[in-house]
Amino acid sequence: xxxxxxxxxxxxxxxxxxxxxxxxxxxxxxxxxxxxxxxxxxxxxxxxxxxxxxxxxxxxxxxxxxxxxxxxxxxxxxxxxxxxxxxxxxxxxxxxxxxxxxxxxxxxxxxxxxxxxxxxxxxxxxxxxxxxxxxxxxxxxxxxxxxxxxxxxxxxxxxxxxxxxxxxxxxxxxxxxxxxxxxxxxxxxxxxxxxxxxxxxxxxxxxxxxxxxxxxxxxxxxxxxxxxxxxxxxxxxxxxxxxxxxxxxxxxxxxxxxxxxxxxxxxxxxxxxxxxxxxxxxxxxxxxxxxxxxxxxxxxxxxxxxxxxxxxxxxxxxxxxxxxxxxxxxxxxxxxxxxxxxxxxxxxxxxxxxxxxxxxxxxxxxxxxxxxxxxxxxxxxxxxxxxxxxxxxxxxxxxxxxxxxxxxxxxxxxxxxxxxxxxxxxxxxxxxxxxxxxxxxxxxxxxxxxxxxxxxxxxxxxxxxxxxxxxxxxxxxxxxxxxxxxxxxxxxxxxxxxxxxxxxxxxxxxxxxxxxxxxxxxxxxxxxxxxxxxxxxxxxxxxxxxxxxxxxxxxxxxxxxxxxxxxxxxxxxxxxxxxxxxxxxxx
Length: 587
Prior knowledge:
Elements lengths: L7 H4 L15 H7 L4 H13 L1 H13 L9 H6 L2 H5 L4 H10 L6 H15 L6 E4 L1 H6 L11 E4 L1 H9 L6 H19 L9 E2 L11 E4 L17 H15 L5 E4 L3 H9 L3 E3 L17 E3 L4 H5 L4 E5 L2 E7 L11 E4 L7 E9 L2 E6 L18 H10 L6 E6 L5 H15 L5 E6 L15 H5 L4 H11 L15 H6 L1 E3 L13 E6 L6 H8 L7 E6 L15 H9 L5 E6 L6 H9 L1
Parallel strand pairs: 1-2, 1-5, 2-4, 5-6, 7-10, 13-17, 13-18, 14-15, 14-16, 16-17
Antiparallel strand pairs: 3-4, 8-9, 9-12, 10-11, 11-12
Helix pairs in contact: 3-4, 15-16, 16-18, 20-21
């Protein structure tokens, strides 16, 4: 049976240079070259040999669909590049493509991300960190915070960890969690030799790329005779000294929360560092303040592009320009310049390069008193707008003593509980950390035990009920202390685990003394309709091992900034008395 005539018309469309081509120079041709392997063209040639009309219909889809595509459907043909559909599917073109697609173009982008992290980790030598016991007791997840570096645990650290596991304190809970973590790492490696190290990412912690080593054999070291050999800290220093000689020139670093331990290590010529991962900020001055001053030439530069409209009692401004990049949702902005009208507004929307500002309610005016209280400065007015906004569920207030944090929170809470009936009751708690020596156990019920810690509550309630805040014009203002106290519950933080607060107004006082874990425990108690206010002075931290950078209040401010249902304000000016203001500055 004679063969049908060859498709000379289609072959003529292919230039003679194409037969000598080895690599497509243009990007589209390279993309089309990834489509069919040589084996995919065999059925096309077979169909062309049996029936020319079928070959004309099947050649274009077979050669145009990229590798991995489905059948030659209408959608599959339209997805291919236009030039690849027009390229003839003759034998020369099909034979040329395997040479081009020997290395699939899609493989290169997949290989690049895999290689990038390995190259980044190999940029410098891995360090070995020797952890002190207090690091594990401070943060039981610290094992996974050292990225690609290795960790070494001396045997005396395990002994001390075992000695702190009993009890219900925070240290005991952290010790038990650290022991469970070590047990999980050992179990993940089965019967493998622990002297070779345990991969820290074997339990799913992908951020840790190093290994964990235990002291499985005695190490030889020589310490000065002035250091007692039996003390645990000195044994750890001896292990660091031995590891430094054993792994030279690799850097061996001691990590400890104990200042004296680090001082002794440096005196012996050892490298020692503090555990920094628990610190939200290195410098307290970098903490988000919640407000931003607009430049004095703001209206001159941005005035032509500002849109304004009014909705209800508020004015709205849509602004653009470089200042938008510095703004966050619920951040306050203000414009004050001599001879020009002032602007006090809150950021309610950020979209692309524009932001919408909403003017504030002036609680400094006598028309807008909150339980008889008026704000006395700009930051207090910002704070009261947050406290009275039902759409803001979480408010943090920081500032020095006498800035009005507790008074404003209580006044806003009493107004919304007794007048507006927005919340059912006020729940107040605080961290029970003594400034001086502890006076021992306190008698009575939970609320009676918390009574001595709530002196600030009593002082502010006295002012709100009888003092300058008193106003007998409404029933709420003439309410007795018994009625007010019936709506205020004093709770201890020790019994908050597992609770859920529904439609409550929760005040957490002295929040600077909370750890990030305690802060998470309290904030996650909020149920539907609950509002939480955290207040504190970061300059008055009484909890051991807590600093301004590692406080739970700092942690909450940094994590919640920019969330549409939270707000923060740093109260800058004290309003208690001139004596208190001067003492805050000079003492």
